[in-house]
Amino acid sequence: MNIIEYEDKYLEDVKDLLVELEEYIISIDMDQLDQLHPDYRDKMAVLDLEEVSNNNGKCYIAVEDNKAIGVIMGIVGTYDEYDYLDYKCPKRGIVTELVVSKNIRSSGIGQQLMNKMEEYFKSIGCEYVLIDVFGYNDNALKFYYKQGYHARMLTTIKKI
């Protein structure tokens, strides 16, 4: 298995990985708000990769037997004028996607992808890495906590 920078020939694999993640999110969504729109597979990966390209980001993939079995995408966060009023605004990388194929999770590939993205962020002067994690995704939360991440902000929800 190798970690490489994204190449277009792996686009279909990346699309499949993102669909796999969304299907998992739907299966654990106690609020039943997530959905898999008919256009999701064709559009989401393209939109994510465009965001990476437009925000000094990177996309790395884990490849085995000429197939992408994991993907991570990250961007460099920006601030607006209001952010500076109450925040120090350190340069930060934001992991926007991390997916490892369900058949090989817990094999260290996610950690290798995270390490690669953190190396990139560090190389361009980022001081922090942010990751939004779906609140019901206990497996992801455990994974990130094990990597040294901690919660700074929490979103709460109530149906009315």
Describe this structure in words.
Helix content is 38%, strand content 21%. It has 160 residues and is of the alpha+beta class. The protein has one domain: 3-Layer(aba) Sandwich (Aminopeptidase). Strands 1-2-3-4-5 form a five-stranded mixed sheet, sandwiched between helices. It starts with a strand and ends in a 14-residue tail after the last helix.
Question: What's the number of extended β-strand segments?
Answer: 5
Looking at CATH, the homologous superfamily is Gcn5-related N-acetyltransferase (GNAT)
**Weakly predicted, low-confidence segments:** none
CATH topology: Aminopeptidase
Radius of gyration: 16 Å
Q: Main sheet?
A: 5 strands, mixed
Order of helices and strands: EHHEEHEHEH
What would the average pLDDT be, to the nearest integer? Answer: 94
Helix segment tally: 5
Q: Terminal Cα separation, in Å?
A: 48 Å
State the name of the first-level CATH class.
Alpha Beta
Task: Identify the CATH architecture.
Answer: 3-Layer(aba) Sandwich
Give the proportion of residues in helices.
25-40%
User: What is the strand arrangement across the widest sheet?
Assistant: 1-2-3-4-5
In short:
This protein is of the alpha+beta class and 160 residues long.
List keywords for this structure.
alpha+beta; 5 helices; Aminopeptidase; 5 strands; 160 residues
